[in-house]
Amino acid sequence: MKRTAPEAKSRTASRAPVVSTSLAAALLCGLLALMPIAASAQGLINTDNQDGSPIEILADDGIEWLRDQRRYIARGNATATRGGVTVRADTLTAHYRGGEGGEKQAIYRLDADGSVVVTSEDTRAVGDKAVYHIDDKVAVLVGDDLKMINERAVITAKDSLEYWDAKQLAVARGDATVIENDNRLVADVLTAHIKKAATGKQEVERIDALGGVHISTKTEIVRGEEGVYEVPKQIATVCGNVKITRGENQLNGDCAVVDLKTGRSRLTGGSGKVKGLILPTQ
Questions:
Q1: Which segments of 60-201 are extended strands (E)?
Q2: How many folded domains does the chain comprise?
Q3: Which of 161, 165, 162, 163 is nearest to 51 (CA)?
Q4: Span 230-252, mean pLDDT?
């Protein structure tokens, strides 16, 4: 029987949505493959690193997966957390190896850019940029306002600031400075040894100073080649061509012990003689 025009139109109309749905689904899949993960995104990425712990990545403006380049890019107040270490920055780029043929992805490096903060329990390190080497558990920060902040000490640097999580060390390079009340300790390199105190908090226990050591207190200035600062005791020992200057008077020797509580120092033993230049008072 010959179909009428309305019947033909009806059958055509009934088939149209099926074709459109299939096409829309194909287009949606293609778009999703090209788009980054939605804003306020988060991801838990299993890794095949030494301890096998996953890395959690959060970002306000989304996480983009660049599969061909084997990396993730998280933008907008981005954070990456693994174990007890958190790296926060405006943008985080996670580089990984593996991830093919059923092999787990292993993130081996995090590049942080903009307002970087690396946190491990009670210790924070801040800078403009950073690279966190996952396998070695070390973060290297650079920038104009490098700073390591701990309840016991605040250390600044001009060249770089390294935080070694596994070894619990912080290394400041380039005019590295630690300030304690009105006292200041400066050296080319300062290495802070961090330990967990009886209170359960991370605290800086000792700071090793190397190269161009300079201690200034309210009453005197002490210079030397290397030194050790015992933070809880507030006692610094400086050695190597030591010069103690107090007003116009100067003492020279091998080593000196500086009490940062009192601001006073004294020359100690060594193979060389102690020499002093004492100017008479009027």
A1: 63-66, 71-82, 85-98, 105-120, 123-133, 138-142, 146-149, 154-157, 160-164, 169-180, 183-196
A2: 1
A3: 165
A4: 93
Q: Is the dihedral of CA 81, 87, 90, 92 positive or negative?
A: negative
Distance CA 169, CA 147 (A): 14
Cβ within 8 Å of residue 7, ≥6 positions away: none
Q: What is the pLDDT of residues 74-90, one digit of tens each?
A: 999 999 998 889 999 99
The pLDDT of 156-167, averaged and rounded, is 96
121: its two tokens: 């329990």
Residue 208 falls inside a structural domain: no
pLDDT computed for residue 89 by the predictor = 98
The pair of structure tokens assigned to 16 is 């149209």
In a domain? residue 27: no
Place of tokens 């080649």: 225
Using a cut of 0.90, tell me whether the model's pTM lies above it.
Answer: no
Which residue, chain included where needed, has tokens 């650079």?
142
User: Residue 168: which of 135, 213, 202 has the closest Cα?
Assistant: 202
Q: pLDDT tens-digit profile of 180-206?
A: 878 899 999 999 999 988 888 999 999
Q: Does residue 256 belong to any structural domain of this protein?
A: no
Q: Is the pLDDT of residue 269 over 90?
A: no
Cβ distance 129 to 154 under 8 Å?
no
Question: In this predicted structure, what is the pLDDT of residue 42?
Answer: 61
**144: exposed, middle or buried (C-beta count within 10 Å: 0-12, 13-18, 19+)?**
exposed
Residue range of the domain that includes 139: 38-144
- Is 81 a domain residue? yes
Tell me the C-alpha distance between 135 and 279, whole Å. Answer: 58
